[in-house]
């Protein structure tokens, strides 16, 4: 199985040299102590935990899986102990508000830690991972009493949280949900209904789980305008903070899934469970978007985790596996064959994994840092950062998870037949990452959000803001070598704006035109977005080489990978442009009855 090694040099390059995290954090009130030295020290400790504790449980957790009984769910051997160590080391509190026992460090640092932990063992990370969204939701929408009662123990990791949206009949169409909330004399609500696909919905790691649940009040309007949001603890909490009686929420079963076997995906029955309204009545979906947007950035991190994990496994194997001779002559003359890394097609797959992972890391960290600006910046700064996040979050969630699946498949392919065999661990990455394109909004839903709400819905304003950042980079002083990349990036940016307008005009005549173009448009947008970050990284790397500042070989590899990205991966936009402009007729003209077997 792949042995995870945290890419500390690349993490430092992106955070400290490309995005200049310390420089940003010094401008944000409360983050002044987040210096490069402190950030690097924390990341190194996170790497040790990920490599030494979580990675060894990755394959065994998949093989053992979770065990359901009427008493609850038992997680795989070692998961509970790893979680206890995680809590003892203070990791859950890293980026949380100091008012509730957090350490008050930037959210971006939490994303870095989650990337490493998720690359080591995504199924395990999902248990504490969803708590971050629960904390954000209660922080933003909860009453002072709710914050006092729940936040401290969620922040410490003593309790975990979930989000309970989906029901069997409605999937992503939450307007159809049926779970009911009946007002009670004591001000609470009786929650009745069933929720499915609840990640980490039941487990043995903590004494309590705080469910954030969507439900309908009596006489609520139909559709999404009639949904409210509730806090429903697994175990009721007394006024003094102690645990009371078990609430009427039970795990009916756990799903038998394609992957992430180490995480319990639960079916939860709410049988008049005691719940508490959070936020205004019938505005639950608006409040839940706080949770969902946090989760979407976290899911983008999953895409990156699987890119990195599959690349590390494939790279180690390609250097070790001997097969055939190089087309240009033996490279291992004393051996019976050459290592397969000498073959162009193997290099194509490895460089694809490397370029996509390192470009995605820059996008993810940038997005996380914008979240810190939203939280701590001035009103003007926060508005600009929030607009950027609105545009880039659906791109990051959908594009990066699609790339994660592509890279996982490349990992299997590099191994050849051995990749298909369970003991090597590469097929597990494929199984584990497939869900990432489904939950928190499928690729198609994210694509419609991007083109419909964020681009066309804003009249192009959000896209023009990012286009302005691309122009600023392209107009910066750079070497002749960098200008080759920047000219290509500027041309793609101009094309992006023109295509957006063209699709928008077509959609005004026929709304199906936007839906028909949406996924291709999102992927197209993703490749240009990564090109922006690769151009930034290339400029920094070339300047470091010129200044003889640091490990020249590291920066040379960056420049070579940037060239590969622009020459081999960015051209994928050409076919995407063709298909997105092919129109809706070839999709919609066939009558339903002709879809026959």
From TrEMBL:
Protein name, per record: 3-methylmercaptopropionyl-CoA dehydrogenase
Domain Acyl-CoA oxidase/dehydrogenase middle: 163-271
Listed EC numbers: 1.3.99.41
MF-aspect GO terms: flavin adenine dinucleotide binding; oxidoreductase activity, acting on the CH-CH group of donors
Acyl-CoA dehydrogenase/oxidase C-terminal domain span: 282-450
Positions in coiled-coil regions: none
Keyword presence, Oxidoreductase: yes
Catalytic activity: 3-(methylsulfanyl)propanoyl-CoA + oxidized [electron-transfer flavoprotein] + H(+) = 3-(methylsulfanyl)acryloyl-CoA + reduced [electron-transfer flavoprotein]
Keyword Flavoprotein: yes
Domain Acetyl-CoA dehydrogenase-like C-terminal: start-end pairs: 466-591
Function: Involved in the assimilation of dimethylsulphoniopropionate (DMSP), an important compound in the fixation of carbon in marine phytoplankton, by mediating the conversion of 3-(methylthio)propanoyl-CoA (MMPA-CoA) to 3-(methylthio)acryloyl-CoA (MTA-CoA).
Similarity section: Belongs to the acyl-CoA dehydrogenase family.
Taxonomic superkingdom: Bacteria
Pfam entry (one): Acyl-CoA_dh_N
Protein keywords: FAD, Flavoprotein, Oxidoreductase
Acyl-CoA dehydrogenase/oxidase N-terminal domain segment(s): 68-158
Annotated transmembrane regions: none
EC primary class: oxidoreductase
Cofactor: FAD
